[in-house]
């Protein structure tokens, strides 16, 4: 049974369009289950019909031409109830609806199972028999399991196949695909497909008589790729500061690594030509990364393969093709490397779309730093057929519209124009104070980790840096940055903002933020595992180096605050503070005198919420990390797309936890800030003010929208709204309440899709 299932699913996966996929399903299932008929009806909610899309056993002419209203027949019933229906004699059932043109009159046994994805019925898979027999439990199980397996395949096949529809259909409907939102914003433009410049996997082994010549051309090709990377790095110089461009150096280091170069040369001298030797070496390296559990390291496999292709390109020919980038380029590809992204002139780059890749990949980090919308993980993207197509990238909702109909294009043009207008209007708020109508000051700070974000908008309008994620400078390297490298990095952040305060958070790795050069054992539940302060305390060498670098960076500036992430109890806080004292002592022993800066912790684990009074008494300030706190309180992985609809920081339970922290901190008279995404969501601003929060930290794009909200409300109104919100049943209720309030107050321009 399982064998049949696998075979069918595999065949469907390689089908070139939806029709072909479905016809494979019906003929294979009919055979596997020994039925007289197998059909698939697809549910079309726009037209209100279940449409017979494929059948083995019913009249051929009926396929594509028989549509049953959603509220009619046995198919309609399976679809409505979203549960299987197994009947001995279908025509005797009160819901039976005869579609004579299919020739179904002579069939009695009926089994229909719904095909469901994300609570929505996509269609119905049906088998029929002439005999008056119910289908056996085993047959029901097979069909049921198959329908579950097929749901995802149908979604993909639909996406793949729809581009093969007729020209008119395509022009009128376009193609809507979903992925993961990796960088917000909206872009309208023209697709430029980027692809591997050489197919490394297709390179054959070939023997060589002249290994020295092969070695020479390999070395020349490596040098040429290195120069390309250096050129790309320089090209980004106007857009990204040196610190963020370190990732190009990381690629160069990988390219020049002893094992990569020497293994290839060794293979050349064993008799393979340069291209073949390169393929073997690259595959060997990439496979090692591929097998790693951890997403960040798996991403490095793409980097290795990309480097291999680049070297191969130079082995094959001398120059890379020159691409003519349109003014609004939507860069699209199976996977896109930072080098490919950097090749687009920054003025032309409007949006990016990829099939693979994760939010921790270098491309994602770079796109966010450049403020370019990025949608990743778009399954079923028919990359090969999209060159120069018009496209819309909705980075807020993780959607891509290819050849969109005029109405969609117009709608998004309107949205983009609104964004522009809003940003111009918001610009008027730049120099106005961030205070409520009753003059309560709310400090608005910046969340950052890349120096690029500090030099832009945020620098002028933020009151300081509320969260500097120090892991990003660690992640773009191939090794731990030295104490001096760290000091320089922190120093530039402190200098840019001086005399405003900059809160540097100690390394928060593990969970979804691995480091390529720190071995993290594969864990069943990395978010509940070795991460954040746990790693820092277990590796005092890493923490003390970082703390020394921070303390040295603030000499003469004194605008540093240090913050520890992920603490789950009092003991960890005591140990972390002890480490800070030890770092100060070790500097003193070297004759470097530094005053202790204010030290704080993040409250982002439920146990810390319940101990926050004790914790607050040990530190100078608290900062609530609502991203992690939400995932732990709601038991929803913040990166899991299957439950992303449940991950919502406006949940009343999250609001109550925040209130509890405010309460605990008030007891010790400690400052509390919020630095998770919630702090940058304008809908939450009145609620946070209502509970007494006076310090918010967010990404630069949220600073002015949040300031607008701050200036619109009084603290009394905020308190009232908070009381109502706390009584809501769920996050949707809170969102609805706030949206209504925003509309009433003339803030509807701030209502963003999906927020
Ligand atoms: C948080 O968890 O809310 C937070 C700000 O930290 P990070 O998103 O870096 O985990
Ligand atoms: Mg966190």
Descriptive notes:
The protein is of the alpha/beta class. The chain folds into four domains: 2-170, GAF domain (Beta-Lactamase); 175-194 and 323-424, Phosphohistidine domain (Glucose Oxidase, domain 1, 3-Layer(bba) Sandwich), CATH 3.50.30.10; 211-315, Enzyme I, Chain A, domain 2, CATH 1.10.274; 428-750, Phosphoenolpyruvate-binding domains (TIM Barrel, Alpha-Beta Barrel), CATH 3.20.20. A hairpin with a 4-residue loop joins strand 1 and strand 2. The chain starts with a helix and ends in an 11-residue tail after the last helix. The site of magnesium ion has 5 residues, from helix 23. Magnesium ion is lined by residues 565, 604, 625, 627-628.
How many DSSP helices?
Answer: 28
Largest sheet data = 8 strands, mixed
Q: How many strand segments?
A: 22
Find the CATH superfamily of the largest domain.
Phosphoenolpyruvate-binding domains
CATH architecture of the largest domain: Alpha-Beta Barrel
Number of structurally distinct domains: 4
At the fold tier of CATH, the topology name of the largest domain is TIM Barrel
Structural class, from secondary structure content? alpha/beta
Approximately how much helix is present in the residues? 40-55%
Shape label? globular
* Strand order in space, largest sheet: 7-14-13-9-10-11-12-8
């Amino acid at each position: 049974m399982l064998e049949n299932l696998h075979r069918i699913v595999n065949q469907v996966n390689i089908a070139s369009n939806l029709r072909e996929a479905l016809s494979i399903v019906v003929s294979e299932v009919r055979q596997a289950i020994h039925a007289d008929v197998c059909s698939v009806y697809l549910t079309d909610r726009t037209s209100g019909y279940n449409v017979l899309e494929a059948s083995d056993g019913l009249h051929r002419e009926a396929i594509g031409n028989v549509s049953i209203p959603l509220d009619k027949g046995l198919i309609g019933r399976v679809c409505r109830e979203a549960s299987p229906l197994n009947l001995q004699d279908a025509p005797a059932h009160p819901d039976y609806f005869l579609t004579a043109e299919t020739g179904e009159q002579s069939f009695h046994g009926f089994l229909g199972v719904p095909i469901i994805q994300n609570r929505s019925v996509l269609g119905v898979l049906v088998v029929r028999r002439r005999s008056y027999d119910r289908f056996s439990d085993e047959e029901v199980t097979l069909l049921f399991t198959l329908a579950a397996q097929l749901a995802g395949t149908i979604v993909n096949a639909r996406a793949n196949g729809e581009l093969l529809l007729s020209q008119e259909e395509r022009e009128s409907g376009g193609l809507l695909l979903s992925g993961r939102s990796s960088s917000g914003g909206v872009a309208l433009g023209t697709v430029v497909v980027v692809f591997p410049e050489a197919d490394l996997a297709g390179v054959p082994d070939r023997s060589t008589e002249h290994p020295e010549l092969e070695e020479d051309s390999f070395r020349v090709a490596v040098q040429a790729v290195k120069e390309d990377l250096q050129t790309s790095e320089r090209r980004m110089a106007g857009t990204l500061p040196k610190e963020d461009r370190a990732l190009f150096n990381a690629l160069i280091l990988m390219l020049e690594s002893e094992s990569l170069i020497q293994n290839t040369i060794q293979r050349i001298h064993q008799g393979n030509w340069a291209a073949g030797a390169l393929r073997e070496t690259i595959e060997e390296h990439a496979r090692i990364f591929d097998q790693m559990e951890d997403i960040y390291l798996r991403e490095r496999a793409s980097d290795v393969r990309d480097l291999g292709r680049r070297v191969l390109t130079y082995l094959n020919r001398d120059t890379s093709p020159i691409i003519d980038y349109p003014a609004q380029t939507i860069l699209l590809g199976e996977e896109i490397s930072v080098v490919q992204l950097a090749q687009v002139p920054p003025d032309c780059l409007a949006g990016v779309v990829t099939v693979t890749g994760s939010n921790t990949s270098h491309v994602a980090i770079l796109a966010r730093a450049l403020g370019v919308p990025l949608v990743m993980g778009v399954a079923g993207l028919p990359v090969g057929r999209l060159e120069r197509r018009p496209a819309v990238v909705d980075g807020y909702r993780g959607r891509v519209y290819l050849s969109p109909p005029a109405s969609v294009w117009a709608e998004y043009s309107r949205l983009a124009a609104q964004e522009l207008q809003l940003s111009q209007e918001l610009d008027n708020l730049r120099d106005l104070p961030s205070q409520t109508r009753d003059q309560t000051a709310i400090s608005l700070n910046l969340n950052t980790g890349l120096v690029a974000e500090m030099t832009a908008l945020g620098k002028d309008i933020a009151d300081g840096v509320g969260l500097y994620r120090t892991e990003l400078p660690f992640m773009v390297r191939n090794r731990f940055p030295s104490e001096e490298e760290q000091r320089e990095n922190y120093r530039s952040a402190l200098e840019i903002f001086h005399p405003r305060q900059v809160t540097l958070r100690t390394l928060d790795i593990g969970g979804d933020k691995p480091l390529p050069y720190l071995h993290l054992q594969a864990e069943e539940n990395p978010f509940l595992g070795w991460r954040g302060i746990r790693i820092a305390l277990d590796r005092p060498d890493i923490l003390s180096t970082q703390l020394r670098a921070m303390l040295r960076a603030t000499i003469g500036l004194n605008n540093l605050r240090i913050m520890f992430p992920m603490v789950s109890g009092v003991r960890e806080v005591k140990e972390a503070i002890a480490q800070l004292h030890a770092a100060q002592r070790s500097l003193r022993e070297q004759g470097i005198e530094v005053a202790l800066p204010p030290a704080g912790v993040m409250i982002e684990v439920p146990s810390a919420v319940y101990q926050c009074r004790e914790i607050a008494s040990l530190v100078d300030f608290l900062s609530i990390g609502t991203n992690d706190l939400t995932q732990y309180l709601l038991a929803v992985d913040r990166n899991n797309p299957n439950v992303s609809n449940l991950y919502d920081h406006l949940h009343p339970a999250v609001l109550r936890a925040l209130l509890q922290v405010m309460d605990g901190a008030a007891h010790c008279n400690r400052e509390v800030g919020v630095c998770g995404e919630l702090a940058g969501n304008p809908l939450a601003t009145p609620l946070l003010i209502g509970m007494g929060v006076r310090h918010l930290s967010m990404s630069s794009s949220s600073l002015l929208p949040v300031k607008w909200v701050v200036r619109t409300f009084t603290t009394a109104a905020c308190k009232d709204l908070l009381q109502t919100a706390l009584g809501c049943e769920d996050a949707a209720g809170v969102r609805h309440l706030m949206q209504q309030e925003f509309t009433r107050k003339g803030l509807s321009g701030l209502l963003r899709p999906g927020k």
